[in-house]
Amino acid sequence: MPDTDDHPPAVPNACGVAAALSIVDGTGRVPSHTIASLEREVRRVIGHLGVGGECRVRIAGDGEVAAAHMKHLGVPGTTDVITFDLSDPNEADSHLFLDVDLLVFLDEAERQARAGGVPVERELLLYIVHGVLHCLGHDDHDEDDAAAMHALEDSILTAIGVGPVYRRAAGTTEGAAA
């Protein structure tokens, strides 16, 4: 996933659990101050969730996301986030530790941010939260599960001071994060 051989530094969250985070911009289009801001917000999310481990995020564009979507999921086209949960589900505390690579789609974030009138940084943050929640056992394959997952995203983002970002697209049951 993110093209780095370095392990991100682990920083204990409020519960004393070490969590490491790295965010890499594979597009070259995201300003460094936006990456730094995203890192701060994601650390707050991880701290709020009380989980440790590692979360590696790669921000990607159309071609990379479409190729990964087809290669790993057999689905043509793009999506907002692809989650690679590398944790061991047999570990007793797997719900407390992340080992995740996330591929988040900048072009989709830009479109959704424009449509929703929010900064693209907030849309990217939503996609990261969504991917992390998948790794913690949440799913959105049916309408009820999706509603519960999106409500949890809103709750987490509100708890860290960002506020809700997710919104349903007009006339559909689908929203910005899937």
Structural notes for this entry:
- The chain is an alpha/beta fold.
- It has one domain (10-159): Collagenase (Catalytic Domain) (3-Layer(aba) Sandwich).
- 42% of the residues lie in helices and 19% in strands.
- A 5-stranded mixed sheet has the order 1-2-3-5-4.
- The longest helix has 18 residues, at 32-49.
- The two termini are 20 Å apart.
- Residues 2-8 and 169-178 have low confidence and may be disordered.
Secondary structure layout plus pairing:
Blueprint: E1 10-12, E2 18-25, H1 32-49, E3 52-60, H2 62-73, E4 81-85, E5 97-105, H3 106-116, H4 120-135, H5 143-159
Parallel strand pairs: 2-3, 3-5
Antiparallel strand pairs: 1-2, 4-5
Order of helices and strands: EEHEHEEHHH
Count of folded domains: 1
Q: Report the strand count.
A: 5
CATH superfamily: Metalloproteases ("zincins"), catalytic domain
Helix- and strand-based class?
A: alpha/beta
- Given this structure, which CATH class is correct? Alpha Beta
Radius of gyration from the CA trace?
Answer: 15 Å
Q: Short summary of the structure?
A:
The protein is an alpha/beta fold and 178 residues long. It has helices at 32-49, 62-73, 106-116, 120-135, 143-159; strands at 10-12, 18-25, 52-60, 81-85, 97-105.
